[in-house]
């Protein structure tokens, strides 16, 4: 306050100076200093500096300009909510990656959602990293859908993919210029052509992937030099990873295109409950990969499958199968025996559940035949097609997860050769490639990034819906925080009371006691006949499903893997409730209606300290 500030500007790309003459003599050195700091530290810097009478220039402080960037490479901090007024949702992506991602895992997701995105959506991100957790830009998807239909239809399309938007929630629209629309349309046409080519290659990929992965797992431990490992990545591992991710994208689209249309048509004809039942026999006479781990356990218990075969077929599937730093279940020598002990303890037979649900399907089909005899053949054909593409999607997902397991082993081998151990997971993919080529500049960031990751993991899971700038540390410190919605504008809809509503996942009505679990590792707490309530479930949870009378999740959509498995087993499920783990406690007695997508609290449990699962999900 003792002097008036002097304002001046240094402009890129050559440091053109605009300002009073007395500061001009420092311009060149100051510009070079700023450019060097940005280059060395990886992002724009807010600096404090001073000069003396002898023309000396001294740096006092430098720190990232966090209001301008989402990412600080030096610390690993990443928050895409800072980049604009977007509406984010993790209602589907959190099923795939339920925890805090390491930098290397986020690199994998950026490959899938950026490099391999078939349609260029411009500067607005379709998927973002919000402090280690993956979110999708629901507002962008809604804005694009809205250009070709009504707001109501656009919302339904967006919700089918990314989960329910709470009633009354304002969705900030993103303006899409006409020139950009033209590019999107052209890219969509190119994607359709590529999609047809990819679909033709899926059977070969699914058939050859297990053996390819097996050979790579044998080969990786014998590699002794970084150069040899770099060559293997460049020539075999990276091309196969990209192929697997392309196949995954094609399988997802193939299933969604047909299943969503059929579900809408069936619901219009026979109602939600019978539509749900008719879409439950997706395994048909074949095998549904997401059902494989739980069905396979029963086969091992009966002696119809060896433990070795089970490990080879399903040992790569788990809750964190797409997190590179997480060990695969098969890496634990005691894993399978533990699963078998829980199955024997429950006394349940998965085959009985499957047979019972097949009877429900047959009954619903008879009702359809009698009501719509003229549509019998066409509907039977459509049901068969959806069952087939469901098996394709699940098989591709399983093999993509297997390929990700090979990438994990590549990373571990790189960490061994570089003397970094598990620190390798705190480099981004391009930095791992640099490391193998002898450039190790990013290694110095590993301690800070590890610390950032640990801080993110200490936080409770963030809200399912986030609008605007989100600071998870301020949010977590707020005793009145909401775990369902965060709205930086302060305009979030009022807290819902009464019945909990979500998406119908699997039809059926059941009453029972709630068991809130933070992860499948707590599965021994689930008693037969209890209602499993969790933030999200995926294939890693499915061995628990036969014990549950019903399944309720905060995160999920009608076509999520968990909903499909619950439907096949005939277990009522309500997914995408957003607030279930916040409002339900272990011991509560509830009525779950999977056909309507509702959970009604009949009797609350006394305070027992169990509480919601949020505080310990990791």
Written description of the protein model:
Strand 18 and strand 19 form a beta hairpin. An 8-stranded mixed β-sheet has the order 12-19-18-14-15-16-17-13. By secondary structure, the chain is an alpha+beta fold. It has 19 helices and 19 strands.
Report, as a whole number of angstroms, the end-to-end distance: 48 Å
Uncertain segments are 608-618
Shape field:
globular
Q: In this structure, how is the largest beta sheet organized?
A: 8 strands, mixed
**What would you call the quaternary organization?**
single chain
Q: DSSP strand (E) fraction?
A: 5-15%
Rg over alpha carbons = 26 Å
Features:
618 residues; five-stranded mixed beta sheet; eight-stranded mixed beta sheet; alpha+beta; disordered C terminus; 19 helices
Topology of this protein?
Layout: E1 9-11, E2 16-18, H1 21-24, H2 27-41, E3 45-51, E4 57-64, E5 71-72, E6 77-78, E7 87-89, H3 93-96, H4 103-115, E8 127-130, E9 133-137, H5 138-146, H6 151-162, H7 178-219, H8 226-270, H9 272-278, H10 292-302, H11 307-314, H12 335-346, H13 350-371, H14 376-418, H15 429-436, H16 446-457, E10 465-467, H17 472-477, E11 485-487, E12 500-501, E13 503-506, E14 509-516, E15 531-534, E16 550-553, H18 561-569, E17 573-575, H19 580-583, E18 589-593, E19 598-603
Parallel strand pairs: 10-11, 14-15, 15-16, 16-17
Antiparallel strand pairs: 1-2, 3-4, 5-6, 7-9, 7-10, 8-9, 12-19, 13-17, 14-18, 18-19
Helix pairs in contact: 5-6, 7-8, 7-14, 8-9, 8-14, 9-13, 10-12
């Amino acid at each position: 306050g003792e002097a008036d500030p002097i304002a001046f500007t240094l402009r890129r790309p050559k440091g053109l100076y605009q300002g009073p003459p007395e500061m001009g003599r420092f311009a060149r050195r100051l510009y070079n200093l700023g450019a060097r700091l940005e280059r060395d530290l990886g992002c724009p810097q807010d600096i404090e500096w001073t000069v003396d009478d002898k023309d000396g220039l001294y740096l006092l402080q430098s720190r990232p300009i966090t209001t301008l960037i989402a990412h600080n490479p030096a610390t690993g901090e990443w928050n895409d909510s800072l980049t604009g007024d977007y509406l984010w949702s993790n209602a589907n992506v959190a099923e795939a990656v339920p925890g805090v991602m390491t930098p290397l895992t986020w690199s994998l997701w950026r490959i899938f959602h950026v490099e391999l995105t078939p349609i260029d959506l411009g500067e607005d991100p379709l998927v973002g990293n919000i402090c280690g957790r993956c979110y999708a830009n629901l507002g962008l998807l809604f804005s694009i859908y809205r250009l070709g239909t009504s707001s109501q239809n656009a919302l339904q399309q967006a919700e089918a993919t990314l989960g329910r938007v709470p009633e009354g929630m304002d969705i900030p629209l993103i303006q899409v210029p006409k020139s950009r629309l033209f590019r999107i349309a052209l890219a969509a046409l190119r994607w359709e052509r590529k999609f047809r080519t990819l679909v033709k290659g899926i059977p070969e990929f699914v058939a050859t992937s297990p053996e390819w992965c097996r050979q790579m797992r044998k080969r990786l431990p014998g590699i002794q030099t970084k150069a040899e490992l770099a060559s293997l990545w460049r020539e075999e591992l990276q091309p196969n990873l990209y192929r697997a991710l392309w196949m995954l994208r094609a399988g997802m689209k193939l299933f969604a295109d047909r299943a969503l249309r059929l579900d809408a048509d069936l619901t219009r004809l026979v109602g939600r409950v019978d539509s749900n039942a008719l879409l439950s026999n997706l395994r048909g006479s074949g095998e549904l990969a997401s059902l494989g781990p739980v069905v396979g356990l029963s086969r091992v218990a009966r002696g119809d499958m060896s433990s070795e075969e089970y490990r080879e077929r399903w040992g790569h599937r788990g809750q964190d199968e797409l997190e590179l730093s997480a060990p695969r279940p098969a890496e634990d020598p005691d894993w399978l025996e533990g699963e078998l002990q829980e199955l024997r303890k429950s006394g349940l037979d998965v085959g009985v559940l499957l047979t019972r649900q097949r009877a429900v399907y047959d009954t619903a089909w008879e009702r359809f035949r009698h009501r719509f005899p003229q549509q019998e053949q066409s509907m039977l054909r459509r049901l068969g097609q959806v069952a087939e593409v469901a098996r394709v999607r699940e098989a591709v997902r399983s093999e993509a997860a297997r390929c990700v397991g090979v990438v994990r082993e590549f990373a571990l081998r790189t960490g061994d050769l570089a003397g970094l151990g598990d620190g390798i997971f705190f480099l981004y993919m391009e930095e791992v490639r640099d490391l193998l080529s002898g450039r190790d500049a990013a290694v110095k960031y590993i301690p800070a990034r590890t610390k950032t990751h640990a801080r993110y993991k200490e936080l409770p899971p963030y809200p399912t819906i986030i609008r605007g700038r989100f600071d998870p540390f301020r949010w977590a410190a707020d005793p009145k925080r909401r775990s369902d919605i965060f709205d930086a504008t302060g305009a979030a809809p009022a807290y819902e009371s009464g019945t909990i509503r979500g998406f119908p996942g699997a039809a059926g009505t059941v009453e029972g006691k709630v068991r809130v679990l933070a992860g499948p590792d707590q599965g021994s707490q689930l008693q037969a006949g209890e209602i499993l309530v969790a933030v999200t479930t995926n294939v890693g949870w499915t061995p628990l499903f036969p014990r549950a009378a019903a399944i309720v999740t905060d995160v999920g959509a009608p076509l999520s893997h968990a909903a499909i498995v619950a439907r096949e087993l005939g277990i009522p499920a309500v997914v995408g409730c957003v607030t279930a783990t916040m409002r339900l406690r272990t011991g509560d007695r509830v009525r779950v209606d999977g056909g309507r997508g509702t959970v009604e609290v009949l009797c609350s449990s006394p305070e027992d300290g169990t509480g919601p699962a949020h505080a310990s999900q990791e």
